[in-house]
Structures are given as C-alpha cells and as structure tokens.
Amino acid sequence: MSLSAQEISRLVGLGLPVLCVDTCTVLDVVRDITRESVTPGDVNVGLALLEMAEAGSGLTVLMAEQVTLEIAGNVANVEEEAQAALEKFLAQAQRIHEVAGVFGAQGHLQVRHLDGHVSRARPVLDQWTQVAQVVPHNDGVASRAFRRVNEPRTPARRGKESMKDCVIVEACIEAASQLRAAGMTAPMVFASSNTKEYFAPNTRHLQGDIAADLAAVGIEYAPNWGAAKHSLGL
C-alpha cells in the first residue's frame, strides 16, 4: 500500500479536496520568471491553494515520494537557470533603455527590483514540500510503472525514458484508489504543467489512455493552478 490504513482513514475523515502535484508543477514555482506561460493570476491561485493546504481546513496535498527525490536533485539547477534568465532579461532591458535614450527617450529604467526573485520564490517551493503528505514507493507501484513504460501508456512513449514519470502517475492512482475504496467522495486532481507528456499532439486534451486511467479512480487532470482550483471546487 502507498498510504497506511491510518493515513487513509485520516484523509477520508477530513473530507477535503485532494491535490496530487508532480515535479514540474512544484519546480515551476522557482523556474524562469521570463517564460510567457507565467501569469500573475495563476501564481496568485497557486499561493491561495498553498494557504488553504497550510491552514489544514480547505485542501489536502499529496506528493509521490518520487517527486520529493526529483525536487531535491533538480532544484539547484532550476534556480541557477532561473537566475541566469532573469539576469539576461535585466541586461536586455538596460540595453534597450540606453538605445532608446540615444534616440531621445527620457525617463528612469525601473527593473532592478526584480533581482532577487529566485530567492524570494524558493521558500514558497519549500512550503509546498512541507505541507504535502508524501505517498511512499512500493513494489506494486514500481511494477505497474514498468508495465506502463513497456506498453507504452501515457506519460510513457517509445524512445523516451519515462519510468520516473510513470512512477509518479501510478503512485497517485494507487493513493486515489485506496481513498475512494475507503469512502472518499471529495474531488481529486492530478496537477502537471508538463502537458507535452499528457496531452494528445496538437491538442489541449488528455491522451485517451491516461484520461481513462485517471477517470477510473475519480481524478481530474489540471495543467495549471487555475484549472486545479476549478476542478477541486474551491
């Protein structure tokens, strides 16, 4: 079992909506802020969900053990890349400002307050890992993940190493199955911003196989915080 009988009983007793987060979704908190996909609205929703989870009265967060391992192994590189991208943007803004000045533009460039963003975002990532209930590995999850890779079933595909992604998916599916069997009726959502692994090519729709697997245990899929909040009914 991924979750102990005591943990299952406690979570069912709480009756709160359940959010399962994958590695990309959590690492996005500190990822390159210059990405066009980052919006104030979605960031605000993410912070609101985090606040609910920390309060313990609005939301339960589940995180596969594999996610915790991947965050620990990758967060430093993600932070470095984010800082480099921000520094590049600041340098570009300064160059544009100076060129515009040559042509007569007047005014002060005000972007230096953006520096330090990565260090401000990191504590939020840490809050997500601290508030989450970790779903441990087990042999059953590993076996089903291996079978998912071999078939292959989403998020696996031929020619790509997908075992870790499949372990995360199978851990969430097993946890959901346990909770549903114990009487959980609250909404459950699997959030992954890594849509290229889950959506059918050139669409905004899940691949049919993963859609069926999630539906079988009553899980909705969300590509961002806003969609997660909506599906959770919050």
Q: So what's the overall shape?
A: elongated
* Poorly predicted spans: none
Q: Termini separation (Å)? A: 29 Å
Order of helices and strands: HEHHEHHEHHEHHEH
List how many beta strands DSSP finds: 5
The biggest beta sheet reads: 5 strands, parallel
Rg, please?
20 Å
How many helical stretches? Answer: 10
Please summarize what this structure is.
This protein has helices spanning 5-14, 23-27, 40-55, 65-102, 117-131, 139-150, 163-181, 195-198, 208-215, 225-232; strands at residues 18-21, 60-64, 133-135, 188-191, 219-222. The protein is of the alpha/beta class and 234 residues long.
Strand and helix map with partners:
Layout: H1 5-14, E1 18-21, H2 23-27, H3 40-55, E2 60-64, H4 65-102, H5 117-131, E3 133-135, H6 139-150, H7 163-181, E4 188-191, H8 195-198, H9 208-215, E5 219-222, H10 225-232
Parallel strand pairs: 1-2, 1-4, 2-3, 4-5
Description:
With 234 residues, the chain is of the alpha/beta class. The chain is built from ten helices and five strands, in the order αβααβααβααβααβα. The protein has a five-stranded parallel sheet with strand order 3-2-1-4-5, sandwiched between helices. The chain is elongated, with a radius of gyration of 20 Å. The mean pLDDT is 95.
